[in-house]
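Lab notes, practical 5.
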Amino acid sequence: MSQYEALCQRIVNEGTWLTNERTAQKCLTVIDAQLEYDVENQVFPLVTTRKSFYKAAIAELLGYLRGYDNAEAFRNIGCNTWNANANENKAWLANPHRKGKDDMGRVYGVQGRKWQKPDGTHLDQLKKVIHNLSAGIDDRGEIITFYNPGEFDMGCLRPCMHTHTFSLLGDDLYLTSYQRSCDVPLGLNFNQIQVYVLLALVAQITAKKPKRAYHKIINAHIYENQFELMRDVQLTRQPFPSPRLEINPNIKTLDDIETWVSTDDFTVHDYQHHDAIAYPFSV
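Output from the prediction step:
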């Protein structure tokens, strides 16, 4: 059983039913999950007990790194995950900060690339981290955070995976990612991919050696309308061996990521998987 299935089984066995305030749905919940990904040996944490559309997860990460604030921009690079939160979230539709169709507001990548300072100027957290790591600097604050409580009302969704801390030991690069809330049947599939790819990609453009990524989740849950599919279908399947991810070696700078990189620059080899499972998504 992989780390993913082990967490799913733990929630099924030990979880507590809670009602989520935002969605008004019951969730089977556990507190504190810690996953670890071996990027050095290319053990790609792709779910195999159902088909994973991994390119959409990578596209979403690229959108975050570029600072996108619009669902159309995400769609254009192959990611549809923001359509509902941008256009179907009732609270956001009534929010005076919303600029119109597809607007997401000041969420995720906007905070990472354009954190607003008191004087009205912007701080580019990602550029600072890339600059320091490229120079071999770890000031114990090589942190990119999307979590800005002062601007929660200016975006369609609080960030779930909200903070990424990079650490250098010589030329070895590590990543620790923190997630406050995780829809395990749907979201964790994406989140695992993104943590792994973020470390691999940043290591590549800063000329460092990727080592391990640590993924810390506070609230891990399965929604009530997902529970039977997880318990009676996905958890009855035997996982296949982990596949391998290949990243285009021509990606060498942050500017490359911002301009021409696409999901075609990421290739998964030896991916065996079971059939897809249509889990419901809660807005």
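Observations recorded by the TA: The mean pLDDT is 96. The beta strands are 16-19, 26-38, 115-116, 122-123, 143-145, 161-169, 172-183, 209-223, 244-247, 266-269.
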